[in-house]
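Aim 2, interim progress: modelling of the 1-O-alpha-D-glucopyranosyl-D-fructose-bound target.
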Amino acid sequence: MEWWKNSVVYQIYPRSFMDSDGDGVGDLKGITEKLPYVAELGVDIIWLSPIFASPNDDNGYDISDYRAIMTEFGTMADFDELLARAHALGLKIVLDLVANHSSDEHPWFIESRKSKEGPYADYYIWHDGLRDENGRAVAPPNRWGAFFGGSTWEYVPERDQYYLHSFSKKQPDLNWQNPKVRQEVYELMRFWCDKGIDGFRMDVINCIGKDDEVPLEEPGKPGFYTGIPYQNHPRAFVYLREMNREVLSHYDLMTVGETGGVTPEKAAQYAPADGSVLSMVFQFEHTDMDKNDPYNETGALSFDLREFKRIMSRWQTELRDKAWGSLWISNHDQPRPVSRWGNDAPQWREKSAKMLGHCLHFMQGTPYVYQGEELGMTNVPFRTKADFRDIRARNNLRDVPARGEATEEQVFRRLLHRSRDNARTPMQWSAEKHAGFSRAEETWIMVNPNYPEINAAEQLAREDSVFRYYQELIRLRHEQPVITTGDYTLLEPESDKTYAYLRTSPEETLLVALNFTAEEQTVSVPEALRQRVPELWLTNDPDLQSSADQPAGEHLRLPPYAAVTYAFGPVAGL
Ligand code: TEU
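Predicted structure of the complex, ligand included:
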């Protein structure tokens, strides 16, 4: 079995992890300093969000030099040290490959924008746009909308052409149809592989394939389309198979593609079991459930547990034996799960954070833990719109009221629940100033004021903390093969209050039961398990803990936000 199949990944957002030099921004030395903490959690792999030279229009997802370290984060020597120390602790390092686009300050783009001639002219995607009878550019070719708002097309007078940018206009899309561009990307990947890194997370890699023909539209219509029309294009698979032959197959790597809009069928093309493309992909159906929520007064997002169960279960069963999957509820682009799907009121915060982790970590796939998730870190009470740093949030605050879709107040309230900045405030290390993240006067983004209650130092010192619970979840995956290999069966799909499932192998049978509400619930125990006395593997609930042998019976009683896994050994007739 490949090493990444029973591994757990920890994602670090370097800007917000640990600031060693007191400039208010996290850095590589800070990460190195905290490696023992990550090792103590028990994970196997660290994924670092981008650490490369960047003007930071999108916090490093806009790279101006793929072979240099971002000045604020340190030097190449700092990276070498980080890698060596991580390896010494048994931790692998996965880097973020952002190759759908570069920064507009990358030398390739600086050259490309100058003229239609020259070696870099076709490194990006250029279009003449719509012309009047005199041949003058009057509008972009169409109303494709960029992910961060506005048009995907930006006019450049020097070339009298428009370039395509799926994200901000400082993130021009690279032209993967140009074989030279692909070779450049493979070269820079080899540069990092030869340093000894252990894999890549591939940013929006589902967007690298595009059509030759760009559809033209009549000028003058208002607004932009949302959503990227060239997601998961057949060419993306062709390029990735080539990348595998050229680079990936020559090293022992874990690769995970970020592939919004992917179906299980397409995921199996991105991550086939024969290893000819990627190791796995990220799907977004569960975190996209509330994507089209209308603006409302509170800004709160909807959550439909039945739909969540349907989505998670579909991925568990449809990938089975076809492709490997990833398991995640949290990353640097998403609000904090305890605030979104759990309950961040003081009474339930820790219990529901453990319950959500429990729900995910007994499934099949490679789990990802995003920094602070293991502490039950919450969404952030941003005070005014000036507190937001994310380009997407700022653009939203500007564009949505201008289009008349919602008031600024409504957008602000929605951002309190939805903004990516909820995940990007500093890691809460201790009750000291700035949560122990930095000794600067001011940090680059505000610290969540709840750090005196929620921080790593406090949780490391307490046996029943969220941190200790995640440690257990990770240890169990390492020790119990059924979690990695077992079959998955959803129980009671119609319940909108509980989530219960089985994991089964010839040797072991697990019943995992979770209460997603603040009231007591019951789960009906499958017939074949009723007369048996199971072993309690893990629970977040003191009552269930003290009545370890009780579930044998028709119903399993679940206190508020309880999570429990019972192991029954081999069972026939399920
Ligand atoms: O995110 C891409 C992104 O916005 C996805 O979450 C999206 O929902 C999905 O792919 C839809 O197709 C990545 C990074 O994670 C993000 O931080 C960057 O801002 C973005 O790419 C641009 O590099």
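The radius of gyration is 24 Å. The longest strand covers residues 498-504.
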